[in-house]
Design brief:
single chain; mainly alpha; five-stranded mixed β-sheet; two-stranded antiparallel ribbon; globular
Length: 504
Amino acid sequence: MTRPAGRGWLLPWLALAALAVVRAGVVDERDPYWQARAGVENLAGAPLRRPDSWSWDPVDALFTQTSPAWNDTLGLAWRAVGLPGLFLVGLASMLTFTTLTLALARRVGARPLPALAGVLVVLLLALPMVSPRATLVAQSLWLAWVLLADRGVRSSATCPPALVAVAAGLAGLVVAWAGSWLHLSWLLLAPAAWLAVTILCLGAPAVDRARRVAVVVGAGAGLGAGVLAGPYGLDAWSVTRTVQAAADGSILEWLPPTADGLAPRWVPTAVAALALAVASVLLVLRRWRARATDDRVGLLGALSVLGAPAALGGLGGVRFVGVALLTLAPVAALLATRLAARVVARAGAAQPEGVFRHAVVRRWSAPRPWRVVLTAVLVLLSPLVLLAGATLARPPEAAALPLLPRGCRLVSDPGSAGPVLLLRPDVRVWVDTRADYWGRERNREALAVLTGADTSARAVTGATCALLSTSDLPTARLAAALDADPGWRPAGEVSGLRVWVRER
């Protein structure tokens, strides 16, 4: 692996920033809306675990937040400037992730343009996970930990072991504490962070045994204490298990890639994640003996500590496919750089062979033309990027909300309920995307109701207003049932959404 160039990284950063603007402006994820409302209530003094007040038909459970610090951040942004605040927080979260990814790509030896190609392919594969999500912020914190730990381990060679242990412990405490408040996924990310530090220590021969032990022990103690200092302490694991049990079999992220309707999209993605993980592990194993002269091998190993198990876990749950891809994006950047280097070498040979005999192929094998093309593409697409960002995270449901009577009891798909909870707090919902709160039984009941399989359920008979998408085929039967029921009156259609109001 050659040392990465110090110039040229602005262009890849701008390209990924454009993607972040689009994803922050047009929000596919609906959780941030209800999370912002939860954050506003938290800031007003509401406990993190509380009876639900958002539903007209709540379940017998406490609403327990798995990302309180993220919710509070969204709540502050909403309270300050409304929807533009949510846009700015979402944009900042994605810019943080892409910046860290490029920094790690540069550190492991990637070059700017190939790095952009490798990272962009990975992000497009994992696009649903590249959004204003607490999990993305938690994973960004993990990447930041690995990047800083890499520098810290290398600099510890000249520090007293006692000071090294204290510094590692404090760093682990702060990061795990912040991560646990950001999202409870740090229950798993914290052990991965400790293993990453251990690999970094083993991959740094210049650091003696005493200092390695100091780093590993100090970081382990700090990370463990930080998790225990999280919002739920020792009870965090049971909260996480509740989330998994409620989502299992009914929420897309917890379904295997082979589930009905998911295979065409997620089986190839899961295979790609697994292939990237295998390539990462093989790269580490092949380079491990050279770690005395290349201190970046340990960093590749640290990324593989999370990326490889997540890729295996992706065979059983879609969400882990995203974790693997987003973790190993710097490795994809390095692999793309190695491939580009081979192309350049073959094109620049004294006697080019195969397709490289053609002058056009040789010309486009150099990076300079591609920099010009990328710059032109960014300039040409900038109006579309700005147009997408100009929506400022305004959901399409916002246009239809004035059609809902004040204080009505709503039945809708879970995704549409999120914006309703934030923009029309007077309207109470039947179900939303808080799958862990609703539990497995309500989640399955919601699926039956929304597909029209059970129109006699309380969700329909007890509701006084309804909001459904006109393009959502699964809810077509329910929409037809509402049209056929004389007790329901169509109230209008806006932005691809239909509203009904109960007349009696």
